[in-house]
Amino acid sequence: MRLSWFAKSRNHKPPSAATFRSEIIADILVPERAEHVRFFSRKLVHPGRTRRFSNQDLRESLLAAFYLVVAASVPVRWWAAICERMSRLRLKRHMRKQFPAYAAATRAVLGAGIDARGLFEALLAARHRRRLQLAAHLAGFRWSPTIRLEGQEGLRAALLRGHGAIVWCDQFTSQTIFGKRALHEAGIEAHQVSVNSHGVSESMFGLRFLNPPLVKVENRYLKSRIVFDRDDAYQVTIRIQKILKRNGVVLMTNTIHAGTTFTEVAIGESGWTHLASAPANFAARGGAALFAMSTFETVPFREYRAVVSPELLPAEAEIGRDGAKDMVLQARYILLKRDRLLEALRLFPEQMLIWSGSRRLTEASDNAMTGDDTGS
């Protein structure tokens, strides 16, 4: 089955956005779970055209300048209130354009009884706090929040086996900076897999001026950044394999927009989520340890909690002969990752940037939830 869909959510889609054709390549049953994992390929149909400038660029530039002033001159105790106020400036537009799909997706996962509007308004505020987190790091200010890293013992134990580790990160609002910072401050050197358009904009202006500050801050806490686009996926794969063979730690963010394959699996009450397939593929084929990671803002601008899961280890984690692909094993990894994601969503749903649709990709015209899909 083939279906056309857009690379980005509606909010990020310029008129000449790249389009892709998605095709089901496998529907794998995991017998012991009585669940299916559907694998898709994603092929470029139209490359689109990079815009020079967009209205989003203007808004993000103004917000970046504003939050730099706030970070440099306003006491930390007022930051959360400022972000809350700023998040309400365009609330009617967000409610009209984004909220219906958000409500459907969150209710499908968490149940009909949730306060979807309350979660949505909290997410808008969390997005603004995310901008101010970046500004505070850029301003070199006196701000020193408490950052707790949980689960590092399991990661270190896995590294003793000598096959490296993949940390599969969820797209919560604080993961981008504080997830990396938590690992760095614990003495864990990590390599981040990242798309070349990582940041807040894909326009020429955004790539030149808006995205580099975020990348610069993140790089403080990384050993290296593995940047790729769709044309050099093979070379990136080789580089990741070399890092894992040297017993390194590789961070991968759960974005389905970068690679050529992804998966779909049921989640929660009646929802569906889309997960990248690359982390499971590396773990199944190469024997690297696989972990999930979620980073939460437990007290705005005061306390952050980075959680590394116990190792995602299927009951029958055996490598296929000669390293051949074992899609059933990959599906088992996917389900384990889904379980950890659902646990995290139930803890801090208002901080999740990306929600998948409430219907299957093959059934929904709006297959991806609108959100701030900034990759890694």
Automatic annotation (TrEMBL):
It comes from the Bacteria. The chain crosses the membrane at residues 61-80. This is Uncharacterized protein. Keywords: Membrane, Transmembrane, Transmembrane helix. It comes from Mesorhizobium huakuii.
